[in-house]
Design a protein that fits this description.
Blueprint (H helix, E strand, L loop, with lengths): L5 E6 L3 H13 L3 E4 L5 E7 L4 H14 L2 E8 L4 H9 L4 E4 L4 H26 L3 E7 L6 H13 L7 E5 L7 H4 L8 H6 L6 H7 L1 E2 L5 E3 L13 H17 L2 E5 L6 H9 L2 E6 L3 H16 L7 E8 L7 H8 L3 E6 L2 H10 L3 H4 L4 H14 L6 H9 L2
Parallel strand pairs: 1-2, 1-3, 3-4, 4-5, 6-10, 6-11, 7-9, 7-10, 11-12, 12-13
Antiparallel strand pairs: 8-9
Helix pairs in contact: 5-15
The structure holds adenosine-5'-triphosphate (ATP) and magnesium ion (MG).
The site of adenosine-5'-triphosphate (ATP) has 21 residues, from helix 5, strand 12 and helix 13.
Length: 387
């Protein structure tokens, strides 16, 4: 029997019925009969002559959670007994001699319910949101956005769990932005894929004081620079697992090229394209928007952020909107001092540049993306106190 089999225990059953039940249960795939006492998925119990003591026992089983479901059997059918059994929370009642079909059907129903429950857990688990931050070109503030959005979301009401993955193969510097030493990167995690489960992953991810769990990028030079299909497949598994563990997975995508970017775009709930008010930046954003649309990615999931924007930019948001044929969801003020200081001290903006326009904008974007809201003052203080 596989390890996933549901366990059944037979208690108080007369010899003849026990033989019948054993044979029937064995004929239905997915159950395993337990010989010892202890917790089981299904308990089958026979009501003997002493109804009072038998129902006391059922009550006890129910209360202790010893069995998830209970089937009853009795030497004869008796409507009072059936009513009493149902009231006691028993799932099925089988008079003897057992009708094979009825028992099989009830067992299949249990299997089906169990399966449905598993699927519910899985779909619930897969609900983490993935945000990929992509730069229209190098140096536009992609990492600044990814790092500061992730740390901002992590301090929101209810402390959502947040992971930050650095997918920048050329200059993966997320740990630097957070003043952390890079320990395990995702190539090393992917290599250990046979051990990959939530527990293993959580021990490997580094936790920042903001609560964000960080997965750094490898430095890929020379031969390693190419993402092989095998490596991409493994990285995909790592990200899938992360999505099932965390409420939010923020990815610093750098300037992605090749197959992994197609995959990242595909799994992302939102792709944030970061650009600056310069002609090359705007032209590249337009190219990326068109490319994503051609890939079949829903246009509403691609959002544009205009970084380093100010009145002196020489080009208005409206002009950019006309050029790229898409609205600019957010524009982030130019604040070299705060961003540079945040990078050089390794402290995110929400802590190092409180109440500045840029930080307020970051909080606004984080709230928009995550549908969350900043924590109230009291909670905020304790978060900051942790730095
Ligand atoms: N809103 C802003 N105002 C002023 N300067 C900014 C702003 N955002 C980012 N910068 C500056 O731009 C520089 C590049 O930022 P960052 O490293 O985040 O960009 P990047 O797109 O990730 O770069 P790379 O291509 O190297 O990955 C940094 O010096 C940072 O201080
Ligand atoms: Mg970067």
């Amino acid at each position: 029997m596989g390890t996933d089999a549901l366990t059944v225990r037979l208690e108080n059953i007369n010899f003849r019925t026990k033989e019948d039940l054993t044979e029937i249960i064995r004929s239905v795939k997915g159950f395993e009969i337990m010989s010892l006492a202890g917790h089981c998925n299904l308990l089958i119990f026979e009501i003997g002559r002493d109804h009072e003591s038998d129902f006391r026992r059922i009550k006890e089983i129910k209360a202790s959670g010893e069995a998830e479901e209970i089937f009853l059997t009795a030497p004869q059918s008796d409507s009072n007994l059936i009513i009493r059994a149902l009231r006691a929370g028993v799932k099925e009642f089988f008079p003897q001699p057992l009708k094979r079909d009825e028992v099989v059907e009830a067992l299949l129903k249990i299997l089906q319910e169990e399966q449905q429950e598993k699927e519910q857990v899985l779909t619930k688990a897969a609900k983490g949101k993935v945000f990929t931050v992509l730069g229209a070109k190098g140096g536009v503030g992609t990492t600044t956005m990814a790092v500061n959005l992730a740390t901002a979301i992590a301090q929101f009401e209810g402390n959502p769990s947040v992971a930050l993955v650095d997918m920048n193969l050329i200059s993966g510097d997320v740990p630097l932005f957070l003043n952390m030493k890079s320990v395990f990167n995702w190539v090393e995690v992917a290599r250990n894929i046979s051990r990959l489960d939530a527990t293993y992953l959580m021990t490997i991810l580094q936790k920042h004081v903001s609560g964000v769990h960080v997965l750094p990028a490898p430095l890929m030079v020379g031969e390693e620079a190419g993402m092989t299909p095998d490596l991409i497949a493994k990285v995909e598994r790592v990200l899938e697992l992360m999505r099932s563990i965390f409420d939010f997975v923020v990815i610093d995508g750098g300037q992605l090229l090749g197959h992994i970017s197609t995959y990242l775009i595909g799994i992302s709930d939102k792709v944030m394209l970061v650009t600056i008010p310069s002609l090359p930046g705007i032209i590249n954003v337009k190219k990326l928007i068109d490319a994503f649309r051609d890939l079949g990615y829903p246009p509403e999931n691609t959002v544009v952020a205009m970084n380093r924007y100010n009145q002196k930019s020489g080009i208005s948001i409206d002009e950019v909107r006309k050029m790229i044929k898409k609205s600019i969801r957010w524009s982030i003020p130019n604040d070299y001092r705060s961003t540079m200081n945040a990078i050089n001290t390794g402290v995110p903006l929400t802590k190092s540049a409180m109440n500045t326009d840029i930080t307020n904008k970051i909080l606004e974007i984080a709230a928009d993306l995550s549908s969350g809201q900043p924590a109230r003052e009291k909670e905020k203080k304790s978060f900051f106190g942790r730095f």
